[in-house]
Specification:
Elements lengths: L34 H9 L8 H14 L9 H13 L4 H5 L1 H20 L12 H13 L1 H9 L4 H4 L1 H6 L7 H12 L8 H11 L1 H4 L4 H10 L5 H28 L1
GO biological process, one term: intracellular protein transport
Protein name: Tbc1 domain family member 13
Pfam families: RabGAP-TBC
């Protein structure tokens, strides 16, 4: 990975009804500037000392070695926290191999996201995404009043939670919160099974504010909030998960004895 590549405005996003991601072809890599990459790093409170060039080389190599996926807008925002962890590690061996280790972890993660979340594909039908469907179902299961309010105003998970899912919350929370959330669901064997529970917990946590708003106020609250109590979010996500799993067990018991 010794060759130099320009980088930056690598978020060419074109959201349509059948395909939420627009591929940036590797042949156009030289035309990219650095504005968007800097914006992401600034949002995550990462310093200018971060090696932007190495981040771009990882993205370039991934696109070259995974032509069936290519490069999509969200990838840089997922990669930057991974690279940040390795490049700031106190262990010099980890720090020295930050680029290689980041590429390995990033490649595995993106391929899992493509397979399990049905994202990063050339043709995806957002309305059929299982994660989004489960977010809607969980809110209805845990908070019927909030669910009815959303349905009355035609507020769907496709509108407010696709960004959380596709970016794994990197565009929503500060980086310490992102790492805490990642620690929870990456530690699980079925790691993405827990994702809709986190997504459903966010509106439920601020339900009292959302119930007072119209569709415009709701979207502003869900898209612009940054600060949230991570401990409370995780605890609520686990609580909803446990309640939901218990309800499924009870339904199976009733079905068995009928």
């Amino acid at each position: 990975m010794s060759r130099s590549y320009s980088c930056g405005n690598i978020y060419d996003y074109d959201c349509g009804t059948s395909c939420g991601w627009k591929i940036i072809h590797v042949s156009n890599w030289e035309e990219i500037d650095e504005s968007q990459l800097k914006e992401t790093m600034d949002f995550l409170n990462l310093t200018n000392k971060e090696k932007k060039q190495e981040i771009c080389e990882i993205l370039y190599l991934f696109a070259k070695t995974n032509p069936e996926i290519g490069y999509y807008q969200a990838m840089s925002q997922i990669l930057i926290p991974i690279y940040h962890l390795f490049s700031t590690d106190l262990d010099l061996d980890f720090k020295r191999n930050a680029t290689q280790d980041s590429f390995f972890c990033f490649s595995n993660l993106i391929n899992e996201i493509k397979k399990d979340l049905k994202l990063f594909q050339k043709k995806i039908k957002i309305e059929k995404n299982p994660i989004l469907f489960n977010v809607d179902r969980l809110i209805r299961f845990y908070d019927l009043e909030l669910s009815n309010h959303f349905r009355k105003l035609s507020i769907t998970p496709q509108i407010y939670s696709l960004g959380w899912i596709s970016l794994l919350f990197t565009g929503t929370f500060k980086i310490s919160t992102v790492f805490r959330i990642w620690e929870i669901f990456f530690g699980k064997e079925e790691r993405f099974k827990f994702l809709p529970f986190i997504c459903a917990s966010i509106p439920i946590m601020i339900r009292d504010f959302l119930l007072k708003e119209n569709e415009y106020g709701i979207m502003e609250l869900l898209q612009k909030f940054k600060m949230i109590d991570t401990k409370q979010l995780i605890e609520l996500s686990i609580k909803i998960f446990e309640n939901y799993e218990e309800s499924k067990k009870q339904k199976k018991k009733k079905s068995f004895w009928k």
